[in-house]
From TrEMBL:
Keywords: Bacterial flagellum biogenesis, Bacterial flagellum protein export, Cell membrane, Cell projection, Cilium, Coiled coil, Flagellum, Membrane, Protein transport, Transmembrane, Transmembrane helix, Transport. This is Flagellar biosynthesis protein FlhA. The gene is flhA. Residues 308-335 form a coiled coil. InterPro entries: FHIPEP_1, FHIPEP_3, FHIPEP_4, FHIPEP_CS, FlhA, T3SS_FHIPEP. Required for formation of the rod structure of the flagellar apparatus. Together with FliI and FliH, may constitute the export apparatus of flagellin. It is found in: Cell membrane.
């Protein structure tokens, strides 16, 4: 029994095939006709209650099976009609009598109209929609795959999530491809039903008049009832299946089932309902119009729209009052609690604390952050903190997230040490489309600038997302836009976040692994304060401090020869040459901007000793020329994935960095001694004075 249930579908398909051969008596035929109508109705209701097409991914196969079942019933009914003098069961006879009602011509016209509606309207439309959906789904696959790879590489998703998303994309492509072919089956079924109807009618007339000796009027009455009844019991399930096909392939952007979406979206527009009622009322002035019917419908629409409007206003008013009462109670409780708290003077000190990192949001952005509302901001920050620690060897401190009434609803602000360093604005219900260099077509949207990298972009609606990807745009969701801006801001200011307490934690962590090294380094060779300055110098120029053992050993060795912290930092950079090369090298080569030999000599001769060590004393004209020409050369890196790099000799590297950092903070200055020998250096520009 269990094996039979496991192979039930295979058994059913075999039985359906046998229907094409084995004759059925009218009683069994009635049962199969009822089953056919029931299955078709179930499929239609399922298609109306699913939220997305993949929830009914078996539909193309079901379409084939039900069509085959319907054809098998048609053949059996045709055999009964032609072999039993028009007798093919009670269902067919009742359906034929109900439609014809004594008038053969009218009954046939109604039947032909039903068939043509299915063939020309529903089936034809579903076929076209399935064809377009299949083509666009296949065209969008590369863009979706690239988006998954980008999310995976940035840590927004893990390998399992990426695998699930790729599997879903593949299933979508397979589903719409199968639906494109399955709609051809529906179209062929409609054509076949017309052929079978003609065979039943004309074949029955010939058999009745030649073999049965019936008169023309008797033949017309008997076989017209049987033909129309048989056609209807096959066309009604076919019409249901065709409608279900159209329902499935037209479900694109939805939040719930068709019933939920239709009721929610229609009832959300009471003005449209009232205007429609008013338009019908205006039509009453047309002479001859049925005033009672028009008046009832018009009055019903206007009253319904008015009641919906009042209900929406009452709901909005109740919601506002509840929010105002909740806010007033919250403020009152807060005032009382604050007064009690500040009686203790130690609590006042909490007011003067400065958070390392803060992020404030406008009201509309709170759902992206609030975990209770499904926000994933905190989880994404945790992932970024872990990745940054693995890459740079520095743990980002906790980020204070809070809403702010002083900001616009769509704005956010990023603060470092209590001061604003970055600001952005996003649209929650939109996607950000980054413009490619040469887009295939322009996409309609709201022009803006991507906040993290300054790339020209457009805010686009959800329904334009797939088209934008096809045209070559990189499409990013609002949360990713905000998180990318936050992460890039933290990377730029990470050296400001490395305080003395964090340095002590890093040293204590190394003490577990190499206690002798720590004992020799601190405080014998260097103090915590100077060690912090060296690590800050490295982070400021984007150099990871993960290899703490190499950094400490180099400090010990270099401190014997030099006492200047900048010189010690340069020795550390040379010791970390493999790390630096990996960070700035791309495919075994590195594109750089070089300095002219005469310019380097000019820089060396301009070095002057001061209380804080050597500093650069170039003339203002030379400095202005260097900055201007560097700006022109940086533009050549726009088409590269590698950041701009200026390559100098070791003697002048730190001084060139100090010269350009305030003008071009995203330009890195490296020396020849910091690059592996096996790397191919490609000079894309040269600065000469």
């Amino acid at each position: 029994m269990k094996k039979l249930l496991n192979n039930a579908v295979a058994v059913i398909v075999v039985m359906i095939v046998l229907l094409l051969i084995i004759p059925l008596n009218p009683f069994v035929l009635d049962v199969f006709i009822i089953l056919n109508i029931s299955i078709s109705l179930i499929i239609l209701l399922i298609s109306m209650n699913i939220k997305e097409p993949l929830e009914f991914s078996i539909f193309p196969s079901m379409l084939l099976i039900t069509t085959l079942f319907r054809i098998g019933i048609n053949i059996s009914s045709t055999r009964n009609i032609l072999g039993n003098s028009g007798t093919a069961g009670a269902v067919i006879k009742s359906m034929g009598d109900f439609v014809l009602q004594g008038n053969v011509v009218v009954g046939f016209i109604i039947f032909i109209i039903i068939v043509l509606v299915q063939f020309l309207v529903i089936t034809k439309g579903a076929e076209r929609v399935a064809e377009v959906a299949a083509r666009f789904t296949l065209d969008a696959m590369p863009g979706k795959q690239m988006a998954i790879d980008a999310d995976l590489s940035t840590g927004l998703i893990d390998e399992q999530q990426a695998k699930e998303r790729r599997y879903k994309i593949q299933k979508e492509a397979d589903f719409y491809g199968a639906m494109d072919g399955a709609t051809k089956i529906v179209k062929g079924d409609a054509v076949m039903s017309l052929i079978i109807t003609a065979v039943n009618f004309f074949g029955g007339m010939i058999i009745g008049m030649v073999q049965g000796g019936m008169s023309f009027s008797e033949v017309l009455s008997v076989y017209s009832i049987a033909t129309v009844g048989d056609g209807l019991v096959s066309q009604i399930p076919a019409l249901l299946i065709s409608t279900a096909t159209g329902m499935v392939v037209t479900r694109s952007v939805s939040e719930g089932s068709l019933n939920e979406d239709a009721s929610k979206q229609f009832l959300a527009q009471p003005k449209a309902i009232m205007i429609t009622g008013a338009a019908l009322a205006v039509m009453l002035v047309i002479p001859g119009m049925p005033k009672l019917q028009f008046g009832v419908v018009s009055l019903g629409l206007m009253l319904g729209g008015y009641m919906l409007t009042k209900r929406m206003e009452e709901a909005a008013s109740a919601s506002r009052k509840a929010e105002e009462m909740e806010e007033a109670m919250s403020q009152q409780q807060q005032m009382v609690s604050e007064e009690e708290a500040f009686k203790d003077i130690s609590n006042v000190y909490d007011l003067i604390q400065v958070e390392p990192i803060e992020m404030e949001f406008g009201y509309s952005l709170i759902p992206l952050v609030d975990e209770g509302s499904g926000g994933k901001m905190i989880n994404r920050i945790v992932i970024f903190r872990r990745q940054y620690a693995q890459e740079m060897g520095f743990v980002i401190p906790s980020i204070r997230l809070r809403d702010s009434s002083s900001l616009n609803t769509n704005q956010y602000v990023i603060k470092i040490r209590g001061e604003e360093v970055a600001k952005g604005e996003i649209l929650v219900d939109y996607y950000l489309a980054l413009e490619p260099p040469n887009p295939e077509k322009e996409i309609e949207g709201i022009d803006t600038i991507e906040p993290a990298y300054g790339i020209p972009s457009k805010w686009i609606t959800v329904d334009k997302k797939e088209m934008a990807e096809i045209y070559g745009y990189t499409v990013i969701d609002p949360l990713s836009v905000m998180l990318t801006h936050l992460s890039e801001t933290i990377k730029q200011h990470s050296y400001e976040l490395l305080n003395r307490q964090e340095v002590v934690k890093l040293v204590d962590n190394m003490k577990k692994k190499s206690p002798e090294l720590i004992e020799e380094l601190i405080p014998t060779t260097i103090s915590y304060g100077n060690f912090q300055k060296i690590l800050t110098n490295l982070l400021k120029e984007g150099i990871p401090i993960k290899d703490m053992e190499t950094i400490m050993e180099t400090i010990i060795d270099a401190s014997m020869a030099v006492k200047d912290l900048d010189s010690v930092t340069e020795h550390i950079r040379m010791a970390l040459k493999r790390t630096i090369t990996r960070k700035f090298c791309e495919g075994g080569s590195m594109k750089v901007i070089t300095l002219d030999a005469d310019l380097e000599k000019n820089i060396i001769t301009s070095l002057t000793a001061g209380d804080q060590g050597m500093y650069l004393a170039l003339s203002p004209d030379v400095m202005q020329t260097v900055i201007t020409k560097l700006g022109e050369e940086i533009k050549k890196f726009n088409g590269f994935s590698q950041p701009p790099v200026v390559l100098t000799s070791q003697v002048v590297r730190v001084h060139v960095h100090h010269l350009i950092e305030q003008f071009y903070p995203n330009v890195y200055v490296l020396s020849f001694n910091e690059i592996n020998n096996n790397i191919q250096i490609q000079a894309v520009g040269n600065i000469a004075v």
